[in-house]
Each structure stands twice: as C-alpha cells, then as structure tokens.
Amino acid sequence: MKFSMDSPVFHIADQITDLLVAGFLWLVFSAPVVTIGPASAALYYTVVKVVRRKRETVTKSFLHAFRLNLKQGIGLTLLYMAYGAVLVFYIYAVKYGMVQGGGYVAVIGGIILAAPFLFTLPYIFPVLSRFEFKVSRLLQYALHMSVGHFMTTFALLAMLFAVGFFIYLFPFFLAVLPGVYVYIASFLIERVLRGYLATEREKYADKEELPWYLE
Predict the structure, then answer these.
(1) Taking 80 as the threshold, does the pLDDT of residue 53 lie above it?
(2) Three-state helix/strand/coil letters over the chain
(3) What is the pTM of this model?
C-alpha cells in the first residue's frame, strides 16, 4: 500500500508536529516570565500562519514574531501582571474585611475591577501579533472586540480557564495545551479579526493574491 504525502493523514500529522514544536518554543521563550506576552503573540502568529495556513516554518515564524513584538509584549506582560496583582490584593482585602459596604458591594466592585482584565486577555496578544499600534491602541482594540463579540469572549475565557485548570492539575501538559488552545481559539479570534480587516481585504480584487493574514 502506498501513502501519498498529500493525504489527510500526513497533513494532520504534520499539523500536530508543528503545533507541538510551537508549544515547546512558547514554553522556552516564556521561561523568563516577563516574556510571556511576546511569546504568546509569537505562538498565535505561528499557529495561524504555519499550522493553519502552511506558510514558512515554525521556528522561523516564531522567532520573527517574537523579536518583532518583544518590547511591546514585555510592556503588556508587566501591565497585566500588575493588574493581576491588584486583583489579588482586592480579593485579600475582601477576605479580611478591608472593603467597606458588605458582600454585595464587594462582589460588584470585584466584577467591575476584573472585567477589563479578563475580557481583553484572550485578544490582546493575538491583536499584538497582527497590528502595529501603540499599546494604548492595542488595548482599545482588544476591549472593543471583547465587548462587541461577548459570546465569543465568553467561549474563549471558558476554554482558557479550562486549560489553565487542567495544567494546574497536570503541569507536564504545559508544553502542549497552550498550543492546542491557541489553535482552537484562532478559529474564533480570526473570525473577529476579519471584521477589522475588511477594508484591507477589499484592496485585493483577486482573492488568490491575499496575504496569509487576510485569508
């Protein structure tokens, strides 16, 4: 029996291999912690460009995106870490009665405080990987997407929490699950991004000439 290299089996095996390599690169480049942002942007860039659309190679694409987004990615990482620290402190303050107004007020305050952090989290690094904007504009885009596509945001957050909880239980999956999450999430996120790139797509009369990020 002869197997064709173009068969679905080889195509799926190739995608899985690329996804595993991308996930491993993400883990290595996230090791300093402050580089989680640029590594996440590079992972999304690589998954969409290489794993889904078969352009270039995993290593070349990942390193290119990581270098390109390094400065802003570190800045965003520090910003989200600081925001997360504020949320942890708020939870601590509520637990030990440092927040006035009772449980109801504390819960509402917590929701208001956490919403911008949680809602933008699934979008911010994909947006970073796709657009060359200032940090403030990137955050604006991420927030607009999260509010304008609430059900998609809810689904992305549910998947993100599920992956995070599973990794908490089984840490050895840390090199695998982030790539799997990004692959699945990219189908939802790319649909959202497509709406922001409609004008750019209209510039191409021949759809076969579309750049990979507009396909």
Answers:
(1) yes
(2) CCCCCCCHHHHHHHHHHHHHHHHHHHHHHHCCCCCHHHHHHHHHHHHHHHHHCCCCCHHHHHHHHHHHCHHHHHHHHHHHHHHHHHHHHHHHHHHCCCCCCHHHHHHHHHHHHHHHHHHHHHHHHHHHHHCCCCHHHHHHHHHHHHHHCHHHHHHHHHHHHHHHHHHHHCHHHHHCHHHHHHHHHHHHHHHHHHHHCHHHHCCCCCHHHCCHHHC
(3) 0.89
Q: What are phi and psi of 176, to 5 degrees?
A: -115, -50
> Average pLDDT of 155-173?
94
Give the pLDDT of residue 89. Answer: 87
For the chain, the farthest-separated pair of C-alpha atoms sits apart, in whole angstroms, at 74
- CA–CA dist 54, 164 (Å, integer): 28
Residues 6+ apart with CB under 8 A from 179: 19, 20, 22, 23, 26, 43, 47
Q: pLDDT tens-digit profile of 96-105? A: 666 665 566 6
- pLDDT tens digit string along 64-102? 999 999 999 999 999 999 998 988 887 777 776 666 655
Q: Say if residue 4's pLDDT is above 60.
A: no
Burial class (CB in 10 A: 0-12, 13-18, 19+), 206: exposed
Burial 72-88 (b: 16+ CB within 10 A, else e): bbbebbeebeebeeeee
Nearest-angstrom CA–CA distance, 215 and 204: 11
